[in-house]
Amino acid sequence: MDDTAQEETLLSVLDLPQLYTRPPAADLLLALDRLQVKPAIWHDAVEVNNRMVDEEGVPKYLTSIVGSPLAWIADDNIKDQIWQAASARLCERSGRSEAVSITLHEPSLTADNLGHKTWLASFLLAKRLASMRPYLPPLTQKASVSSISDISSSSIHAIELGAGTGLVGLALAALVDIDVHLTDLPAIVPNLRANVESNARGNTSVGELDWSDLKDEGEQLKYDLVLAADPLYSPQHPAWLVATIKYVLKKDKMARAVIELPLREAYMPEVEDFKNRMEVVGLSIEVEGLESGFEDWESAHERNARTEVQCWWAVWRWTSSD
After folding, report:
1. Phi and psi (nearest 5°) for 63?
2. Which residues, 6+ apart, have CB-to-CB distance to 304 below 8 Å?
3. Which residues contact 43 (CB under 8 A, 6 or more apart)?
4. Contacts of 1 (CB under 8 A, 6+ apart)
5. Can you give the pLDDT at residue 52?
6. Pair 214, 244: CB distance under 8 Å
7. Considering all CA atoms of the chain, what is the largest pairwise distance in Å, rounded to the nearest integer?
8. How far is it, in rounded angstroms, from Cα 110 to Cα 43?
9. Residue 255: partners with Cβ closer than 8 Å, 6 or more residues away
10. How far apart are CA 176 and CA 144, in angstroms?
11. Are 240 and 210 in contact (CB under 8 A)?
């Protein structure tokens, strides 16, 4: 790309929502998401329809947000999310960001144990978690990544459903100081537990959870954040997954469920069934998007002809928390 073309792709800070116009909270959050400085380990990923931003004036822009009372925004929780996101973007530009390193073991893949493979949707969701922070429950980010908040999150709990090799849950545990519980079927849990132990995440735990056999545990722990990536590969799974999300997600206005699904043609009926069932149980989409990548399971002679896979992600919240 020549210099002229590169300049045309850059977005000026003046094109971002300006505080004097009293922009909607959603516009500010989206702008702050766009301003995220990604760790170097993820720089080879290309985000579709996401123009780069010229850094000139960005620190001053972020500082103005941190120092603004945001008086036109009524929801204090949303204000906190905006201030946290702006502070995070400043810290990233101060050199206090670092890549997260996670090592995973993948046993031989079989048709019965698909959870032994780290699928594309898990990778994409893991790398997107940091930029999703404005839409998630208030989380305390780890000092080694970016010391942006002194908010106590000791009461915040997250669970990953169908964790497989554990990438998504481990990525979350590496980014924030909250308790993360990774779950899957009994056959998958031994390798999942080994991956958790080898990555030494002190705030993680592992357990068995069969969506088709939810047990009534009375006052069982409810979670502020539910994560799931590529969990649908049979006609029964949408009903089971939605029932499980309803079972474990705290009925609170700040609780969120984050789901990433590959849009494979063979499983589109399951994707649509899942969306419909989520709405039926009282959940609605707060923000959603599309991204794409390539699976890495092909044999060497297939790699030159491999097909790009598009994935859909969404953050869900209770329509009513009553």
Report:
1. -60, -35
2. none
3. none
4. none
5. 66
6. yes
7. 63
8. 32
9. 137, 223, 224, 225, 249, 317, 318, 321
10. 10
11. no
pTM of the model: 0.67
Q: What is the pLDDT of residue 140?
A: 54
Rg (CA), the chain: 20
Query: For residue 307, which of 266, 259, 271 has the smallest C-alpha distance?
Result: 266
Report the pLDDT value the prediction gives residue 256, as an integer from 0 to 100: 95
Question: In the prediction, which pLDDT does 183 show?
Answer: 96
Reference 274, options 161, 196, 170, 171; nearest CA is 161
Q: Taking Cα atoms as reference points, which of 320, 271, 312, 313 lies closest to residue 135? A: 313
Q: Strand, helix or coil at 316?
A: strand
Running along the chain, 322 residues long, what does each successive block of 10 average in pLDDT? 48 88 92 71 36 76 87 90 81 55 69 66 88 75 38 69 93 86 93 88 87 71 93 94 95 94 93 97 93 65 62 93 64
Check if the beta carbon of residue 158 is closer than 8 Å to that of residue 227: yes
Cα distances (angstroms) measured from residue 32 to each of 29, 53, 103, 131: 5, 11, 30, 9
CA separation for the pair 66, 317 (Å, rounded)? 26
CA-to-CA distance for 296 and 119, rounded, in angstroms?
A: 8
Residues 6+ apart with CB under 8 A from 276: none
**What pLDDT is stored for residue 133 in this prediction?**
76
Residues in the chain: 322
